[in-house]
Amino acid sequence: MDNCGDATTYCCAECGEEGVVSLKACKSCMLVKYCNTKCQRNHWAKHKKSCKRRAAELRDEALFKDPPAKEDCPICFLPMPLKIITCVSLPPATISSVPIYDFAEANEELVDEHVEVYYPCCGKSVCIGCICSFHESGNNDKCPFCKAERTGKKNEEEVEGLMKRVEANDAAAIFILGNSYHKGLLGLPQDLTKAMELYTWAVNLGYSKAHCILGDIYEGVDLKKAKFHKEAAAMAGYEMARYNLCGMELRSRNMERAVKHWTIAASSGCFKSMHNLQVALKNGHVSTESIHSPLTAYNNSCAEMRSEARDSYIRLKINN
Asked: Which residues of 198-237 are buried (b: 16+ CB within 10 A; e: fewer)?
């Protein structure tokens, strides 16, 4: 009975019943076990404090561990950057990319531009480098992956193609349809309720960008839900969600947690996070020694995501 408050034992933390095969651990903290829900409810007053403390520790362990690898472009097989890597002043990238030895500065006009396009004809997201190369070869009106005709499609036809992917449970298509209702795109009416239903559907299919958008929607309305969704997106590897979490932590005066988020996001190639780490260094919030590792990881991540085709697109955007 003395050791029943331990998840490694085989007795109920409330009644001390031993050897019960169906003992279930507390799902929030995994610290204790119970023989039934009645015992769990009765024990809650004693367990509440330690449960919440351990649950927060487990959440932080998951939140601050290394994120999963980025998805690759299905054509060039390079990691798909979230935003443009606008380091055109550095040595030109080769097909296999070259190291970036200096802090990769971003062009301010392009730093928020997305770098992939979703094609409902095949359900693929293709990087802007491959799209640019495909168009330069005279294929402006086709999908760069499946080469389906994309000429002069009306909004109704675009929505029809998107709906086929939605019916196939394609999370990206569901997210884009939600975004279209959210912003009134593709001839669809603005409908936040419908958009949130679709975002939630995409979230349940594991689509991290939908978590991030839901976090943005809830911010200013329900901070607890906003933080939950942004943390979920960050854990799934969506570095802009992690960057946005920094702002929430700073508003709560949690500089240490903000620095942790910047470090992880910068290591994934997030320019804004790397920039903020540099500012934090100047203001004495981080040491020179501690910034060396994320800076190296940031430069390596940028190098992995560069190619001649992507650099060509960036130069084209800047020149125009």
From this structure: bbbbbbeeebbbbbbbbbebbbeeeeeebbbbbbbbbbbb
CB 296 within 8 A of CB 267: no
Q: Which tens digit of pLDDT belongs to each residue from 12-50? A: 999 888 766 678 899 999 989 998 999 999 999 999 999
d(CA 203, CA 122): 21
pLDDT < 70 positions in the chain: 1-3, 5-9, 19-21, 85-109, 111-112
Cα–Cα distance for residue pair 306/319, rounded to 1 Å? 19
Which residues lie below 8 Å from residue 287, measured CB to CB, with a gap of 6+?
281
pTM of structure: 0.81
Domains in the chain: boundaries: 1-63, 116-319
Cβ count within 10 A of residue 2: 8
> Could you tell me if 266 and 277 are in contact, meaning their C-beta atoms sit under 8 angstroms apart?
yes
Per-residue pLDDT reduced to its tens digit, 144-156 = 999 998 877 889 9
Pairing of strands 124-127, 116-119: antiparallel
Domain 116-319 CATH assignment equals 1.25.40.10 = yes
